[in-house]
Design brief:
The complex is a heterodimer of chains A (488) and B (523).
Chain A: H1 7-25, H2 38-42, H3 44-57, E1 63-65, E2 70-72, H4 74-96, H5 107-126, H6 130-147, H7 155-186, H8 191-194, H9 205-222, H10 230-237, H11 240-246, H12 249-265, H13 269-291, H14 296-317, H15 320-347, H16 362-365, H17 367-381, H18 387-399, H19 405-430, H20 438-441, H21 452-470, H22 473-486
Antiparallel strand pairs in A: 1-2
Helix pairs in contact in A: 1-3, 1-5, 3-4, 4-5, 4-11, 4-12, 4-15, 4-22, 5-6, 5-12, 6-7, 7-9, 7-10, 9-12, 10-11, 10-14, 11-15, 12-14, 12-15, 13-14, 13-19, 14-15, 14-18, 14-19, 15-17, 15-18, 15-21, 15-22, 17-19, 17-21, 18-21
Chain B: H1 8-24, H2 29-47, E1 60-68, E2 73-79, H3 81-100, H4 109-128, H5 132-141, H6 143-153, H7 158-187, H8 192-197, H9 202-219, H10 228-235, H11 238-263, H12 265-291, H13 296-315, H14 320-351, H15 362-365, H16 367-380, H17 387-402, H18 404-430, H19 446-464, H20 467-499, H21 502-522
Antiparallel strand pairs in B: 1-2
Helix pairs in contact in B: 1-2, 1-4, 2-3, 2-4, 3-4, 3-11, 3-14, 3-19, 4-5, 4-6, 4-11, 5-7, 6-7, 7-9, 7-10, 9-11, 9-12, 10-11, 10-13, 11-12, 11-13, 11-14, 12-13, 12-18, 12-20, 13-14, 13-17, 13-18, 14-16, 14-17, 14-19, 14-20, 16-18, 16-19, 17-18, 17-19
The chains are: A mainly alpha (488), B mainly alpha (523).
Amino acid sequence: MRLDLLAPELVLGLALLALFVQTLTTRKTAEPRTGGGFLYGGWLAYAAVASAVASAATLGLSGLMFYGAYQIDALSQFFKLLISVGLAIATHNASFGGTPELAQDKRSDYYLFLALSAFGLMLLASSVELITIVISLEISSFCLYAIVPLRAEKPEAVEAGIKYVMFGAVATALALFGLAYIMAAHQTTYLPALVGRDFGFAGAPLAALGLVLFAVGFFYKLALFPFHFWAPDVYDGASNETAAYIATLPKLGAVVVLVRLASLLGPGPEVAMVLAVFGALSMTLGNLMALAQKDIKRLLGFSSVAHAGYIMLGLVAGTSEGFAAASFYALVYLVMNLTIFWVVCRTSPSGRNLVLDDLAGMHRRAPILAFVLAVAAFALVGLPPTAGFTGKLFLLSAAWGRGFDWLVVVAAVNTAISIFYYLNLVRYAYTAESDEPSESKGGVAQLARPTAWANAFGLVLAAVVLALGVLPSPMFNLAAAAGQQLMP
Amino acid sequence: MIDAGYPILSSLIFFPLLMCLVLAFVRSDELVRVITLAASVAEVLLALPLFGFDPAQGFQFVEQMAWVPQWGLSYYLGVDGISLLMVMLTVGILPLCVLCSWTYIGKRIKEFHICLLLMTAACIGVFCALDFVLFYVFWEAMLVPMYLLIAVWGGPERRYASIKFFLYTLAGSTLLLVAMVAFFRAGGTFSIPELMERSYSFRFQFWAFLAMALAFAIKVPMFPFHTWLPAAHVQAPSAGSVILASVLLKMGTYGFLRFCLPLTPAASAYFAPVMIAFAIASIIYGGFVALGQSDIKKLIAYSSVGHMGFAMLGIFLFNQRGVEGTLLVMLNHGIVTGALFMMIGLIYERSHSREITANQGLGKFLPAYMGFWGLFALSSFGFPGLNSFVGEAAVMTGAFQHSWLVGALVVPGAMLAAAYMLRLSLRMAWGGPASPAGKSWRDMNSREWVYLAPLAVLTIWLGVAPGMVLRTIDPAIERLLADFQAKSQAVVAQVEEIDRPLPMELAVVEIDKAGATGAPLAD
């Protein structure tokens, strides 16, 4: 076995072990809630950077391990890189503010679960066997079930946790049903062996149904309609830092598996149509629901439903370009969402949920973070020259002319719908001032004043969002390599 | 195509961006103004090499670099006669905008000037881009600073106006994005000159035209997509209104000339009657609504709808005079309406009202102001010898060349313009009673002279001697129209092939035959 192939997993695995030891040795004291993030596992961010470096180093490698169930290739390494980077940013986000709503003695457990979840996602990126995929999915999900309710003294957090578990359990059950049907139809669970098998409703109805059901497990992770109901409630109930993680990284795992399924199995026209219809409904309902939200995290929750729909554009295209576009969009989504959550976490005092009114006067209170928020919001709309635009352009270009022109039009129209609520974020941050005495409404007065380092890191994230939009080539080359390797 | 010695166009786009960065570190408000003014003058100097333009050639000062090779995206800039004019207008208007907001803008001065510079960079980018995606990038990038200009420094209803502006224009351009993607799939590239060389099926052109036309018509704005304009104009600060009127609206007509005519010629010809009807409706509607306004700024805003109707009309006449007229209207409307908006800002600083009734009797107390106003107002409704006349006359000539009916419908529009403009100017100059405070208002100061005088000179000069502009644009228009005729003829023939009632007749004949042969069978 070549250990160099497993470098990112090994690095993260070592960090996991260290965290595990730390959880056993943490003193259960009633220290104040703030500060000390680093000592209590905040160092995970640096371990994640190390695993990102390891992923980058293994980008060109390829190999098959564990009796053909585990594949190292351009796609898996690309996603491992994204997961590592995402984990680094998400844990930095959590440790930076000292996760104000988290009890001190639970901190190292919190980071352990975050790391374990990311570890599961990494396994997911490389799994090419259905049962391995399900197990990896569960590894990454279980940890999240544990950390969603970790929000001190908030009943909503418990509710969110229960909702997340219930939905997750149903989704897993459906996925297992699907797995069973696929096995029954084709007598194998290895993706390479399933290549070229019939997945049409006419020829192999059992397999087609199985594939759709199996995909449901990942639709759930991706918060794709109609498996999205958990998203806004969970984001709402979980603490800001946890929501930042749940909104971004698990989606990467879902995208990588869906890309793999779509590429290896070459879904029949019917399955592609199911994906397209789910995508269209997801975009439209997600955006329409987001229009009515006042709570920023709920707004982002519904908007993530819409973004899951956009990613379907790349999957239904069924070409290497399409998969590259979907992978690239996953990257873009990760970065812009982590950026906006960075702003939300840094400006929310005592970790409570922010509503739109809280943003009023932000340009005076936190001018730099207001700018970062604007960049992230415009990226989420898909406005040039941000990464959101380039990502969306690639998706639209990939899907057009492949029989899904209508889906492209739906996506474009949805962009128009989404402008309003994203623009609202910017509008509140920049223009709500003299008209409203925000102080009395509890706006400006309660917005936390960010530190210099919070501003600096926010600017770095905004710069990445802009850079991916202006110069997408280097990262897109990686995604394109992954796409090409999938479709020779 | 001629290669540039050094990247003139890029420097025009990136110099303002660089200055934005510099401004970010400047603290003193006064210094911000001075630096922006210096930057805008430097921008004009940077644009001077553009006078080396050779009208006989196609795209010039071309720069091309691979951007995302996998998707055929390139950083591709160049100007022809049409875009050159617009670039010069954009560059020229910037220092005047800085000057006219010198005392007008009182809060967040640094951010204001950064927005101005960002706008300029994006607008120049729009007119120079020869890559469809690059065009779209600049087209959309311009929205954000404009939105902020209205939303932060605008009038009391600025929130409503800014959101309406943003939603309208962005909603229109989302379909442009789809059209862009469709062209990429059909033509295999995003390069505009290369796309122009291909020909597309009529069915494709039909939808592509509709998608693009919506985006451009909203930007023009053409009746009935104009409702965002008065709100945006009235609420925007002076400099915002000036850029909106002088540059932004031109992007719509520019889009029609750059994309619709060359890329979808047959569909343009097919939709021409509809577009002409809407253009005439814009002219007449704009005129009538302007006639009923009591707010000076709103009046000028509606007059823009009318003027841009002329520009739209000229395009869809498909003759040399018409398109020439369009370009002249675009340029002259930029100069004159820009000047009028500056003058409204100027008087607003004194009277703090934009109502006509609050700004009467100015002829007595502000003679210099009223002199300038008179000049621009006369030009605005097309007084012979001043610049707007040249453009409108050309469009009208083109309209009569096209058909007497179109010509006959346009003339009342021009008369309406005279009616509302003269009525407005009359009341401003001699109306009474003058506001009691009016006696104490000071006439134009030297700064105000500095930014209005060049526009006044241009107004007269372009009215008396439009030759230089015509020499620059004529070859480009000839090429555009020749290309358009050739391509639209080719596709029209193809459409007739399909649409000719022949298949229908054949079907009938066949049924007859069947009847004829069937009869004996029935027997």
